[in-house]
Amino acid sequence: MPIAKWKELFNDVTPRNFAEKCCLYDRHQQVMYSCGEFPNMMLMGPRGCIAFTPALILGQLKWGVTPVPDQQLGGLYLWYKDEGPSTQEVMAVRKALRDIHLRGQQELGEHQTFYSEEYKSWRAERVKGISAPSFSIPPAKGGLTPTEAILGAKVRMLEYRLQEARDRGEMKDVALEKSDKVASSLKEEIKSLKRDYAEMSARTNQLTMIRQNRAMEDEILSLRRRLDARGEAWRTVSEAERVAVQDLGQARATIRDYQRALDQAHQREAGYKQALEESQAREAHLNDQLKGLIESHDNMQENQAIWEDNWKCNFDECEQEKEQWKGKCHAIIEGFGDFADKWLVTFEEAQQEFHMYPDTEIRPAMGALFRDCTRIARRLRRWRTECNGGF
């Protein structure tokens, strides 16, 4: 609503019409006044019906309030019975709700902003009395003769016109009282409005600058926090990279040592194979000699026994060296497996930390290195399992 309208509204307010002037612009064009043959409105609920009288609240809807006829004063009806309402009563309410009667300016007259003296006296007398509501089905249509209906309509129209004339007279009195005050207070109100407008403009500029300053301070604080967080993340990544480089160097040195030991083991194995082949060749040569020297068997039996003892000792030594080699290979394989397990645990922990802190940035090369190291560790673990199965 414009300021001029508010000013006009406030100038019209007096102690006598203050309650009616509030929300004057909220006016309803039509009112649900009754339904069917009932003199008021009926509502249906899950356990019964409630009746209310719209004629008593016309003042809240900004219509002129007049004394309410006795036939509309039934109070509120609550049907909560153990056996429930009768079928005839329910059907009467349902039929009435299909026929709702609306009243507007033609029936209620012009919008009013105060109660009439006639209504005030009627309300005071009604408050003193006590009424006990009772429900009855309204009579069917045709209870009144056409002459009675016409006379009743004329009486109601005359009552509305009388109330309208009274309201207009009272409104003229209020307008006369208002016109005496408007001329004297107009200049003072204009000065006050100008002064208030200047103060509001200055205060608005100050508040705008304060809000902008606070917004800039909040933005600067947020940027500082982001920079601190990025610096901390960069330090964490640098430290992790340094530790990873050290671990990688140690891992490469360990792998070279294991490879050297494995080459030596292969060389010893080749020597054992060559010695075994030589022993087999020597055995064949001795068998040939044994066949050719059967006549000297008695003389060579002692030498043969000595040779068999030496051969057994040689095989025992080979077997011992084989077991030693097998233990060393098993230790090498287990060392590779333990190293792979520790390596996988380390990189899985690093991967979990990266998932826990998604804002932490990692270089693509570093990520590729992590993935390559993880694949190498898994291959070492599979190799350990295959070698242990072979043994």
Walk me through this protein's architecture:
This protein has 391 residues and is mainly alpha-helical. Among the domains are: 3-143, no CATH class; 248-293 and 313-390, no CATH class. It contains eight helices and four strands. The strands form two sheets. The chain has a two-stranded antiparallel ribbon. Strands 2-3 form a two-stranded antiparallel ribbon. The longest helix has 147 residues, at 146-292. The chain starts with a helix and ends with a helix. The model is unreliable at 132-137 (pLDDT under 50).
Helicity, in percent? over 70%
Shape descriptor: elongated
Q: Please count the helical segments.
A: 8
How much strand content do the residues show? under 5%
Would you identify the regions where 5 or more consecutive residues have pLDDT less than 50?
A: 132-137
Biggest sheet architecture:
2 strands, antiparallel
> What order do the strands of the largest sheet run in, or round the barrel if closed?
1-4
Distance between the termini: 96 Å
SSE arrangement, N to C: HHEEEHEHHHHH
Main structural class? mainly alpha
Number of beta strands: 4
Name the average pLDDT. Answer: 75
CA gyration radius, whole angstroms: 56 Å
Q: What's this entry about, in short?
A:
The chain has helices at 3-12, 18-21, 87-97, 105-108, 117-128, 146-292, 297-356, 364-390, and strands at residues 31-35, 41-44, 49-52, 100-103. The protein is mainly α.
